[in-house]
Design goal:
Structural class: mainly alpha
Mean pLDDT: 67
Number of strands: 0
Largest sheet: none
Distance between the termini: 42 Å
Order of helices and strands: HHHH
Low-confidence stretches: 134-143, 145-153
Number of helices: 4
Helix content: over 70%
Number of domains: 1
Shape: rod-shaped
Strand content: under 5%
Length: 228
């Protein structure tokens, strides 16, 4: 639509220049004494056409600026879409890694619960060891079981679980920041697009007004020529 309006404006400028030449020729013909009123009206029409021609040139420059801005907005939208695609890919990779890490930490948590359960059982067994009258052989078996069970304990499990929670919080904050940044960029691109549409509508309205004024002047000139 912007290209059509620009071409139409250029065609109107060319037509106005041709009509200016015709009017100049008519002005020379009217240099002979054919009436002061007709000469004044002709000069007025010439001045008005010159004004319209200047407005058309200004409109054409403005439309060229709008064309450049539309290219800029298009490039910004393309860059934004690429950035969003990149962030989506990064999010998918991070989410896959997070799911793997979460499953791993779930296994660690299960192991911690198992160790805690074994610790409670060990305490109960230790209390049974301290009971008087219990055979020594049974107490030795309990000690052996205790050593075997403690050998399977992992002292790093609480630290790993705490690290998992911290990583989850940091990752969530990072995702929130990415979403806010993309939202701001999207709002900026939409605002620029709306401004471009408003400017284009203004240019089209001004061009329609100029064409209407030019048509009216042509009709008045033709009527004047028929009368003379």
């Amino acid at each position: 639509a912007l290209g059509d309006v620009s071409q139409q404006g250029y065609a109107q400028i060319v037509a106005l220049r041709e009509e200016q030449q015709v009017l100049s020729s008519l002005q020379l013909n009217l240099s002979l004494p054919k009436g002061k009123e007709a000469e004044v009206e002709l000069k007025s029409n010439v001045r008005q056409i010159l004004i319209l021609e200047g407005e058309m040139e200004q409109l054409q420059r403005h439309m060229q600026d709008l064309g450049l801005r539309s290219v800029t907005v298009y490039n910004e939208n393309t860059e934004l879409r690429l950035l969003m695609k990149e962030e989506e890919d990064n999010f998918s990779r991070v989410l896959a890694g997070y799911n793997t890490y979460r499953n791993k930490m779930e296994g660690h948590r299960t192991a911690v619960l198992q160790v805690e359960s074994q610790t409670r059982a060990h305490r109960e067994e230790r209390g049974a060891e301290d009971r008087p009258g219990e055979p020594r052989g049974e107490r030795c078996e309990c000690c052996t079981y205790k050593k075997e069970r403690n050998a399977g304990k992992n002292p790093k499990l609480p630290y790993l679980f705490k690290t998992h929670v911290c990583c989850s919080q940091i990752q969530n904050r990072r995702y929130d920041a990415i979403v806010k940044r993309l939202h701001c960029q999207l709002m900026k691109a939409q605002s620029g697009h709306r401004q471009l549409q408003n400017n284009l509508y203004w240019c089209v309205s001004l061009l329609s007004l100029i064409i209407l004024t030019k048509t009216t002047d042509q009709n008045r000139r033709q009527t004047h020529e028929m009368e003379t």
